[in-house]
Amino acid sequence: MGYNVAIDGPAGAGKSTIAKQVAKENGYIYVDTGAMYRGLAIHFLNLGIDPKDTEKIIEACKDVEVTIGYESGIQQIYVNGENVTAKLRTEEVGNMASMTSAIPEVRGKLLELQRTLAREKNVIMDGRDIGTHVLPDADVKIYLTASVEIRAKRRYKELVEKGVQCDLKEIEKDIEERDYRDMTRKIAPLKKAEDAILVDSSDMTLKEVVNTISRYCHR
Fold it and tell me: Residue 125 and residue 16: Cα distance in Å, rounded?
């Protein structure tokens, strides 16, 4: 059995950035489950499927293969053999992933891959329902969050630095809507596991968050 660290939390809380750093410092394999859902979202977008058309989404899951690989220790997402990693972080892909990830067939498509990795490797895995659903027996569970305002400002800064024109208020609204969808969906909603450690990064630096989480990760 591998040693498993689960990090859950809302959109924009910095889960991926933090998990990558903790994995690097502690020798874990980093598994970005959100990227897997975004990979499926790219497949749905390529097919021109409306995210509300559940029947077509389910049908599209039947002939798609999502796999992960690692280049220089960095996770890569492949959809039907194509590396789509560079396309994962657009708002369009994020929204499609958020709207379709509640569909049981979408979750089932990826769940066994995630659990197999955790059985075989020492992993740190981040997402919305890792500690509550994907890895309920994880050795360490963290619930990482930050205020909506802080998360929006971080996302705004990230996009501006990439040269993307954006509106802070729109990003804030988008994050609030994603929070609502994630927390109210019927299948594996976002919530803090009873035995998870709450880490609010609103007033913390990246290094402070990494150090805080690393302190709990003792194999």
Answer: 9
